Amino acid sequence: MRFFSPGDRKPRVGFFKFSCCTGCGFQLAYFQKSLEDTLKSFDFTFFRLASSSGTPEGPFDLALVEGAVTEPYQIIELKKIRANSAVLYAVGSCAITGGIPAIKAGVPEMEVQNKAYRTKLYGLTSLRPSVLGDYVEIDGSVRGCPPGERDLQEAMVSVLFHRKPEFAGYSVCVECKIKGNICVLVAEGLPCMGPVTNAGCGALCPSYHRACYSCFGLMGQANTAALKGKFRKLGLTEDEIERRFSLFDALETKK
Amino acid sequence: MTGENVFQKNYEVLICKELFAGWVEGLRDDFKLIGPVGDGVNAEFREIASLKEANLDYQSTMLPPGKAYLFKPLEEIVLFNAGPGGVAAEEPPIPVQKQVLIGVHACDTHAVFYLDKVFLGAFTDPFYKARRENTFIISLNCKTVTDLCFCHLIGTGPYLKAQSGYDMLLTDMGGEFLVELKSERSKNLFNVKGRPPEAGDWQKKDEMETRLLKSFKKDFKADGLRQVFLSRPGHPVLKETAEERCLSCANCVMVCPTCFCHDVYDETDLSLTRIKRMRRWDACQDYFFAQVHGGNFRSERQARLRQFVFHKLDYEGQFGLKGTVGCGRCIRWCPTGIDLTEIAEEMMK
Amino acid sequence: MNPYLPFKAGITGIRRETGDVRTFRLELKNGLPSGAPGQFNMVGYPGVGEVPISFSLLPSKDSPLFEHTVRAVGRVTDFLAGFGEGDEIFLRGPFGRGWPVNEVKGKHLVLISGGLGLAPVRPVIQMADQLNAKRITLLHGARDPESILFETELKEWRKKGIDVKLTVDEPGEGWRFHAGIITEIIRPLKIEAAETLAFICGPEIMMRFSARELFLKNVPRSNVHVSIERRMRCGTGLCGHCQHGIWFVCKDGPVFSYQELSGYPDALL
Ligand SMILES: Cc1cc2nc3c(=O)[nH]c(=O)nc-3n(C[C@H](O)[C@H](O)[C@H](O)COP(=O)(O)OP(=O)(O)OC[C@H]3O[C@@H](n4cnc5c(N)ncnc54)[C@H](O)[C@@H]3O)c2cc1C
Ligand code: SF4
Ligand code: SF4
Ligand code: SF4
Ligand code: SF4
Ligand code: FES
């Protein structure tokens, strides 16, 4: 067989974290459904959240990297990870679209640095937030905040198979309709971001009768202008619209 | 058997609504009852215990009953088991649950005929086929129309004229239902005694239909579209609508009762022992739909919107039927209200 | 019958054609294979997916073995490239309407192929003796001499009486044939327009320019057949991905006459 079979050496995985809340790591280490099989099939040689032993040096069959790049040292580390890994997937919105750490993108760098990075406790240098793909080639994006089951599983399986992954690229609306939710945007006028948001969550928010807030980030070729137009018609102010679009996609919207 | 003499000549009968409801409830032993629940255009076909839960005065649903209950949004189509002896393919079980769809409007009944052409054509889809055979369809002539309905222009409603392909047709006559039996199995199953309709009843039915036909708001010419579409596939209205309003969100396709497209993908568990080959409703509005290695035949948003509009209003040569049944769902559930009939009209100008 | 259920096929041989192109010789594990020139199978592996691949050699009276020639370009085809002799793959088929070989009788058959497009044309050549063509010409274009497929068979095909003409975009040292684009070897071709039947397979843009050369020679649109490529998920007219106008490329095609294709948007043709 072509893939890693039980007799083979287990693929070595390294899990790395940059600027983020570590939620993706938690998702992988504690919450996902196939945890047992994941641990059986892979050798986590570096995963701080699960074990304090292990080396970040590699080599890795798979590197999973969460977090946005907001500090200079991270670029050097990221390049090293890339060099030591056969496959590198960006995990979570921070690593892929900038996510929450990128909200500062709209504020001048010095202002951020003085306000948040240079305090009595820290003396850090602020860098304009950016995503992994800006510095190294990534082999795929496991989207979400935190990632959904399907894409996470696809990421792991693709490595076992030595094949390219196929992640969901369609809108949240597709998942929402598959669930049969009555659309909160059309039926109730809630400002749902589903039409421009990449699928993967299983339309979680609309399933609980809430508007999607785009935590998976924009899908490819999202027509943001058209949805903003719709939100205007619903009576949202420009500021409210801006906030909805910059919560997870500040890098896109504040270019 | 009761009712024998009533049905000897024709299979039509008027019965009071309570009696009908009682008969439906009696089907519960063998069938899952599925009927419209909720009001207006936001009703939903759901499993019900009795007709009391259903609202047969509903106007429309978001998901169409035929598509939702015959062609599942997500379904296993092949299973693979991997073990030391290799990998073996296995057919997932064919669905055997009997179900009755109660209150299917004329447009949605026609949509099932369209899906039949797709899934029971040159290649038969075993899952659709099994469900279709196990589904007893009770259609219902509409009492009201919505401002987005245009079945009258397509010939798919508001009263159902088809004589076969479904089981029963109901018309609400006030206190009674006019029940018309359209399949052999309905003749075996429906055993309620009632009053045979008389000339006056038929006249009343005709009058109701005429009145209903006058209440339609939508009007556009569906004839001659072929030529227009052929000569102006790049009409600016497509580009403008696509760029200014279309989100490529695929809601239009998801709610369309005749859209049949689906994706096929494999779901593998991490122990690599069980692989499920799945199908999932897919949409030509999605960017990746027509992508191949080295290109994408509909990378432009306007090309995708055009595929939808043309497939619904033109391309009749594909199955010998129009792709639309005039239910208006794609317009209603499009977040920006994109209307295929308006696009067609603009192109016809 | 579940049309999605794949069969197992064993790999009995692999030939490395050019850098990323391999020909797999296959044998069905159960039952006898069938197929016609221009038809395809959905080839793949559980957990990876399936893709349409044309027959590059058909099973025949003499041998139940058949061949698929595959270029590794992505998820599924890269995975297939990792297989070796003795391994098993999964496939379904044969699907589609192939080349109209019944119309060849008495005609001048012009086969035009670009790159990997020679693979689906090869079964036509395989049955050349049975076609009763008046004449068969094969015009093949490739990027460079190294990427010409089935090179060892060309001599054999010439022996069969097929007039083989080659061209490459980038000729190296010692290239004896034409250098340039395919249309340049179509243009000098002497043909009787009404008596000519053309089968074209290659990148869509190459097919368009090749067909145009033939139309300039007054070959009727209904006599020019092309094999087109679309995304395919089922191969059976169910999934809708391959639709082009009213056609399902998987079941109504992949071979169409130019006549049948004209008038629909979203194609180069
Ligand atoms: C009728 C037909 C015959 C073909 N015959 C051959 C052949 O003989 N030899 C050969 O090497 N190639 C052939 N192809 C092209 C081959 O199918 C694609 O190269 C292959 O699908 C790429 O899949 P992938 O997963 O490796 O690539 P990726 O780029 O990773 O593709 C991802 C997915 O996109 C879809 N896809 C991508 N490209 C195509 C495509 N061109 N056609 C259909 N679906 C696509 C597939 O579903 C695939 O799984 C043929 C295509 C068609 C339609
Ligand atoms: S509720 Fe939101 S995600 Fe769901 S269909 Fe409506 S717009 Fe899309
Ligand atoms: S529902 Fe409307 S916005 Fe969404 S893809 Fe369809 S036409 Fe475009
Ligand atoms: S409109 Fe699009 S999704 Fe619907 S059936 Fe046609 S091609 Fe498929
Ligand atoms: S195209 Fe629109 S109006 Fe026509 S059947 Fe589909 S959803 Fe209904
Ligand atoms: S490949 Fe599915 S319909 Fe043609």
Write out key terms for the chains shown.
heterotrimer, B: 349 residues, alpha+beta, seven-stranded mixed β-sheet, four-stranded antiparallel β-sheet, 14 helices, disordered N terminus, C: 269 residues, alpha/beta, Elongation Factor Tu (Ef-tu), domain 3, Rossmann fold, 2 domains, six-stranded antiparallel beta barrel, 6 helices, 17% helix, binds flavin-adenine dinucleotide, binds iron/sulfur cluster, binds FE2/S2 (inorganic) cluster
Helix count, DSSP H or I runs of 4 or more residues of chain B: 14
| Total of domains of chain B | 2
Number of domains of chain A: 2
- Describe the global form of chain A: globular
Radius of gyration of chain A: 19 Å
Number of E-state strands of chain A? 5
- The coarse silhouette of chain B is flat
> What is the C-level CATH assignment of the largest domain in chain A?
Alpha Beta
The CATH homologous superfamily name of the largest domain in chain A equals NADH:ubiquinone oxidoreductase-like, 20kDa subunit
Largest interface: B-C, 51 and 40 residues
Q: Beta-strand percentage of chain B? A: 15-25%
Overall residue-averaged pLDDT value of chain A: 90
Q: Radius of gyration of chain B from the CA trace?
A: 22 Å
The bound ligands are: flavin-adenine dinucleotide, iron/sulfur cluster, FE2/S2 (inorganic) cluster
Q: Specify the helix fraction band of chain A.
A: 25-40%
* Binned strand content of chain A: 5-15%
